[in-house]
Structures are given as C-alpha cells and as structure tokens.
Write a structure and sequence with these properties.
globular, seven-stranded mixed beta sheet, alpha/beta, single chain, 53% helix
C-alpha cells in the first residue's frame, strides 16, 4: 500500500463535489508528456479541455492519457441527497415551507447530516464509547457534526469539502472496519495501523479542513493503542496537508482526473455506474459503485 495519496477536486454544474486521488507510486509519465505537448507550465483540466481534440490527433499520447487518468480513485459528495432527506423529514412531520423552515435552515441541517454520515462521526463514536484517557497537554475537541462544521468555516460549502475529504481519507473496507469497531469492538489493530500511516496531500483549497482531518487521524491512532498495538510509530508528518500543484505531477494528474470525471458526469446525465466503468474506484456519499 502506498503511504501517500495526492488529491484535487472540482464541482459539477449541479453542485456535486468531485475528488480525484492518485497513489504516490502511480506511474505519471503521461503528465510530463502531455504538459510538454501542450507547452504549458502546469497541467489543468480547464486548460486541457479546449485542446482535447488536438491531443486526440496523437493516438499514442491520447491512449496514455486515457489510461493514466482512469487510474484515479474518485470520491463524490452530492449534497442534494442530504437536502432532499432533510426536506422529506420535515414534510413528514407536517412542517411548512417558509413558515417552519426555509433554504437557509435546510442547508444548515443538511450540512450536519453530511458530516454525520462521514467517517468523522464514526471514529468519534468509537472514541467516546471507549472513553480514552488523553494526555493533559492534548487538545480535546467536540467532534460533533455541528462543531466540525463550525471549525471548517461554518458554511454549507465548508461542510461539503470536509465531509468529502473525510470519505477520501479511507477506503470502503477501512470505513467498514471503523463501523465494526464503533459498534462491536472488533479488533482491527494491524489494519488500522496501516490506515493511520497514510498521508493525504491536497491541492491548496481548504486549509481549515486540515486540523479536523488530522484530529480524525489522531483518533484512529488512539483506537490502535486501545486495541493493544503498542508498536504503532508516531507520525513524521501530518496525515493531511496542502501543497501548491505547480511543482507536483500527482496533484496536476488529480486536477485532470477530477475535471474529467465531472465532465463525464455531465455527459452521461449523472450515471455513476458509467463513471465506475472507467475509473479505478468511484464512491458517492460513501457508497461504492460497481464498474
């Protein structure tokens, strides 16, 4: 398993938030070749798309670009799902639009639902249930959805980013392990140690999410120690950080893949299964779509 993943994001026209990630050991020679062919200092999907047909005129390069882009892992947050759930809940209770609630209150509650359905809430449940003893010097944060939203910036868009990045921090299997630990105390110490060693490097976009994600990783570390895995080594760098993309082929590849995935979603009418047939992995609101 690669110790690092690099990710970037974009939004679709209908508010879906798309993250693309590449492992550090993924071959990215196509990035250098495409950048050279386009004669640009930095590869960005928005600059590539108008010249797509130019690249397609070079079949060998086009194939390498396709094969390379589709090695990305795609994580999507669709906030409309949570907003619909909030609306249905209130309508079922007899609430009336513009009397009992409005768009602002829908967004506020949907933001907390997004965070509450992410791995952030799962690991918090396990942490609280087992009442870990923390050093007096360690900061203790309320990890409730409302507090996470506040720490992330307080806006609906902030909740989208922090929940999407939280989903992207773990694989589906790793998320399932955290759920089982939370509810049954199942022992996954060795597997969790591998999770906790992983680092995510994002393009510079949302620095307020980083302390939350690093706190999340620290809580996984406490789970590991609770399960008796005493040999777990301390981190040498934060679990989540941001870097400028101009000097990183991985982040430029992630920008390409995120834009590519968003474009395909627009073309195929939001068909996630079609998207999953192309990319290495596709998850939407934590649900894996088969290819």
């Amino acid at each position: 398993m690669s110790n690092f993943k690099y990710g970037d994001s974009c939004q679709t026209g209908d508010d879906k938030y798309v993250i693309a990630q590449f492992r550090s050991d993924t071959s990215l020679s196509w990035v250098l070749d495409l950048r050279s062919f386009l004669n640009v200092p930095e590869l960005k999907y928005k600059g590539f798309e108008p010249r797509l047909y130019h690249v397609q005129s070079k079949p060998e390069l086009w194939k390498r670009v396709l094969d390379g882009v589709y090695q990305a892992e795609i994580t999507i947050t669709d906030p409309r799902v949570y907003k619909r759930a909030v609306l249905l809940t209130w309508f079922a209770q007899g609430a009336e639009w513009h009397i009992d609630f409005d768009e602002r209150t829908v967004n506020e509650e949907a933001a907390e639902w997004m965070i509450g359905c992410s791995p952030l809430r799962i690991v918090d449940r396990a942490d609280i249930d087992w009442q870990f003893q923390r050093p007096d010097s360690e900061d203790i944060y309320d990890f409730s959805p409302s507090e996470i939203k506040k720490r992330a910036g307080g806006k609906f868009t902030d909740a989208i980013v922090v929940s999407a990045r939280a989903h992207a921090m773990l694989s589906p299997a790793e998320t399932r392990q955290l759920v089982e630990i939370s509810y049954s105390g199942a022992n996954y110490g060795t597997e969790l140690a591998q999770i906790a060693r992983l680092c995510r490097i994002w393009d510079v976009e949302h620095p307020k999410s980083l302390p939350i994600l690093n706190d999340f990783s620290d809580r996984i570390g406490r789970l590991i120690r609770h399960q008796g895995l005493r040999f777990f080594a301390a981190r040498t760098r934060p679990a989540a950080s941001e870097e400028m993309s101009h000097s990183s082929d991985h982040l430029q590849a992630a920008d390409m893949a995120a834009g590519w995935a968003a474009h395909l979603l627009t073309l195929n009418g939001g068909d996630y299964r079609s998207l999953a047939r192309q990319f290495l992995c596709v998850r939407v609101n934590g649900v894996v779509y088969p290819g």
